């Protein structure tokens, strides 16, 4: 394929595939546990952390990971339960957005001309602008995070379904909650480099929500969620290459949303009651008279 002859496309696929697989696996648990709002809050934290790093003159990725992982742990601890509640998340989100405004102001005053595109890249991502070294780093980090979530997958599934019974069975529910949200935060930092802080939630939630609608079996659902997320990235990159006016972040999110809508339609078709066949009913009535 001619598209694969371009180095920037290959680099984008390396980074995008690994991060998408991570997002699909983590996202399945996010949807199952009803913590999509927490994922949204952490995506805003990613923006604030990135701006804090830019304003301080340090590596943007350092700000992303420190802010999101730390915020994930804080949300888990402040929630006081296995998962943070909406009040805690909403309060934290408002405070973090205020910090984002502060760091944006500092960054603009410090380096408005030298790094004028950095703010846009943080918001909307730049998968075609990732260099090979950053792509390999993203792939290695994603692989490590995938291993981490798979290690805790079984007890995490138990606590997600019935936290009270899991706690009675000796599962460390209070520890798993903050740990999982820290992994969600790190995943959000990874996806922010691909599709941006504002759109990262879409890659985290849409393929996973589609998988949950298509199957209620945990392990096939996790695998399907990862597959759908990877498919969204590959299809999105292909569309952005075919239509250069479309930014890749838009096409990736469009495909992910289409996957969810298709899953909803398929689910309704499977659960819709079958309409009676008038011809068959007449035939049965005629046979009964005989």
TrEMBL record:
Highest taxon above the source species: Bacteria
Stored Pfam families: ABC-3
Subcellular location: Cell membrane; Membrane
Transmembrane region(s): 12-31, 51-75, 87-108, 120-153, 165-188, 194-214, 221-243
Membrane-protein topology: Multi-pass membrane protein
Keywords: Membrane, Plasmid, Transmembrane, Transmembrane helix, Transport
SUPFAM superfamilies: ABC transporter involved in vitamin B12 uptake, BtuC
Family of this protein: Belongs to the ABC-3 integral membrane protein family.
Protein name (Swiss-Prot/TrEMBL): Metal ABC transporter permease
Species, as recorded: Pseudonocardia alaniniphila
